[in-house]
Structure formats: structure tokens, C-alpha cells
Amino acid sequence: MNWLQLLNPNRLGQQSPAKQSNSRSLFEQDYDRIIFSHPFRRLQDKTQVVPLPEDDFVHTRLTHSLEVSSVGRSLGKRVGETVIEKYPELKENGFTPSDFGAIVAAASLAHDIGNPPFGHSGEDAISEFFLYNKLGNQIKDSVTEGEWADLISFEGNAQGFRLFNMPNNKGIQLTYSTLAAFSKYPHESSLKHRIEGRKSQKKYGFFQSEAYYFDELAKALGLNQLAQDEKSWVRHPLAFLVEAADDICYHIIDLEDGCRLGWVPFEQARDLMAAILGDAYMPEKLENTKDENDKISYLRALAINTLITQCVDVFLENEDEILKGEFDKALMDLVPCKKVLREIIDVSIDKIYRSNLVLETEAVGHTVLEGLMQAFIKAAIGQKGAEESSKKNLTVFRLLPNTYQEQIVATGSYYEISRICIDYISGMTDRFAINLYRKLTGITLPGTK
């Protein structure tokens, strides 16, 4: 792979070359397209870790995504400074470090855009509907092996890639480079020949319905294909920086949120962040601030900056292997303070992710999403004549937005019907999903709270 081809400002599906604006680069336009999109705005009411937070300081998917994007921009620009000096042809073709920063910032901004309500428990609930629900399991005989693999393992990354490439959603049509940097797992769900140790094969990045688009993307950028008989490629180099930006934020900021909520003692959070700083930690500077939350915020800023520097160093040390497609590890797994990061994750699992509030909301998420999947998929299939088309099913079907109804009527594929219903349900906010479930089950009457 080579950087000139990897920095491709053309947009997926466009027939003519993209035109550059004098005020904004095409990569900067990607950022603006994402931030003004409906799927991005819905992140303001989607669970990050603490569900439906009442405390303004606790993060939602929206604030998390904005912070990941900020870290991503710093990572991209700092890597870009060195890469452009190393490859003079990049500067000759008008590329700057800001282009690297803009690509990583936009891809980082979008990294959670395909996540359903209730976080990872929402992904599990959608997958388990097809695995264990009688109606969901019946669909197996009507889809291909690859399509079934998509349905029983819902993946937010693949849903995000689908959102960007929907025919009726061209407002978020992104450049090749930003889409590839977003795609941390560039292969299909039914991959059979996984290569042990490759981080990019931990999950998957596109559904069968969007496989054609990824093939076009990979060819345009010159991504190395790992197996000729399977849809599997190496990562775009900047995807490593998107992953690092997310890793940095959830390690440090989840710990900060846990401390603010009183789930993690201040002293423990302070000492963990101080361990990241190492010799740069100066406890005397904390004495000027009395509020513990302000102290943690100060340490969080220093810890993030330290991790940015360490991740940039790891990337640049391995840049040759990354371009060859031989490097496939998380940058954060190789930083000097990786042992401390492991301790932070252990603390977060014990005191945050397994807190009663989080566990109770995950249980609610499973119930709500299974109920919505049952109602809408049954209603959608009912319009195709394969399920009893009762008046109730027709009423529920009409609750779908008109565009979804039209798509369902137009297709004879049970896979596509399922995908369209998942598009609707996974795009809901937490509160909307709960309120709609309560109305469908008769717990709450329409027009009441």
C-alpha cells in the first residue's frame, strides 16, 4: 500500500473526481456531513456506560464521540507531520498534516454511529432475537449462510458502514479514505479463515448487503486482500489511529465518570492516572485545586496527552509494517504503560460495568429490543403473506416511517426485511425505544407519560 493512493478524496459511488473547495478540504467536509446528520444527533440519548445519565458530567455516546474525534485529530496530525516529511510526493500533491488529522477526526466522530440503544447489550439483544426467538429463528431457512451470520451477530461497525452507504442517505456520502479509516474490521461476518492474532478480525465491518461497496472502496485505496476467496482486507493505516483514539478515551474517561459517580474512590483513580504519567506526575500541582473532580479532570487531560504521544510513537515505529499489511495490533497494546491500562480496565469492569445500575439497564435493554424486534419483524413479514396478516400487524407496520414501509413492500428478501427493521430499531435512542415498547405493550397510553 502507498500513502498517495490511501489518501483518496473521491467519494464512494461518485462517477467523476471530487472537486476541492477553497475553504474546506474534502476530508473536512466529511466531518461536517457527519456532525449534521440525523444518526449522529441521536447519539445524544444513547448509552455510553452509565444509562440515561442525569449528571451532565457523565458521558453519552455523543460526548464520547466528540472527545474521541478530538483525540483522533491530534493523533492524525502528529502522525501526518512525520509521514509527509518521509514521503515528499505527498507534499508535492498538496497533502498536509491537517489532511491526516481531518480523516482521523471524521472517522473517529462516526465510530459509534451504528450502535443501537443500550450499548453492547443492545447488540446482543438484536443478535439473540434471531438465535433464540421462535420468529427470528424461522428466518434462517430463507437466507444465505453469510446473511444468517450477519443476523445472528449484529455489529455496530457494520451498521455504521451501512448507514453511510444507503441509497436514500447520500447526505453522508463520505470519501474513500474516511470510510476506510472508519472500518476497523475490514471483512465480512462469515469469514472462515481467520488469522490468529490479527486485531482487525476480532469483529467485522460490513454486512452482505454492503459487501459490494467495500470491494469498491478497497480497490480504490489499494488495500491488500488477505484471501482471494473471501471478503477480507488489511486495515487502512489510519484505522489504527481511530481505534487508538477510542481506546484512549474509554480507558481514561470511563474511569473519570466512575470517580465522579462515587463508584471508584478518588485515591484509586488518581493513582492509576498518575501511573500513566510516570515521572511527569507532579502531585504538588494538585494542591492548588481543592475539588476532587477538578483534580481528576486535570490528571485526565495529562494522561490523554501522554497516551497520544505514546500511540504516535508506536505507529511511526511500525509504519513500514503497517503499509505492508503485516502489522495488525492495537497501538494501545504496545504503549509503555500498557500494564496500567490493564489495571484500569479491571477496575472499570469491577466497579463500573458491573454496577447494579448498568446491569439493570442492560436487562431492560434486552427486554425492550426483543419486544420491538418481535413486533416489527412480524408485522413486516405479515405484509409479504408469510405470516398471518392481522389488523394488529398492519397497524404496527404503519408505525414504521414511510421510507421503511416502501422498502419492505419492494423487496422479497427476508434478509432485507430483517435489515430494514433493524435499521429502524437500531437507530432509536434509548428513551424512544423504551417509550415505544411501553405503548406497543399497553403499559403506557399514547399521549401520556
UniProtKB/TrEMBL annotation:
Top-level taxonomic group: Bacteria
Gene3D superfamilies assigned: eoxyguanosinetriphosphate triphosphohydrolase domain-like, Hypothetical protein af1432, putative deoxyguanosinetriphosphate triphosphohydrolase like domain
Keyword Manganese carried by entry: no
Residue stretches making up the HD/PDEase domain: 57-260
Keywords for this protein: Hydrolase
InterPro entries, per the entry: dGTP_triP_hydro_central_sf, dGTP_triphosphohydrolase_C, dGTPase, dGTPase-like, HD/PDEase_dom, HD_domain, PHydrolase_assoc_dom
Magnesium listed as a keyword: no
SMART domains attached to this UniProt entry: HDc
GO molecular function annotation: dGTPase activity
GO biological process per UniProt: dGTP catabolic process
Pfam families documented for this protein: HD, HD_assoc
PANTHER family reported in the protein's UniProt record: DEOXYGUANOSINETRIPHOSPHATE TRIPHOSPHOHYDROLASE, DEOXYNUCLEOSIDE TRIPHOSPHATE TRIPHOSPHOHYDROLASE
NCBIfam families linked to this entry: dGTP_triPase, PRK01096.1
Protein name in UniProt: Deoxyguanosinetriphosphate triphosphohydrolase
Taxonomic source organism: Marivirga atlantica
Organism classification: Bacteria, Pseudomonadati, Bacteroidota, Cytophagia, Cytophagales
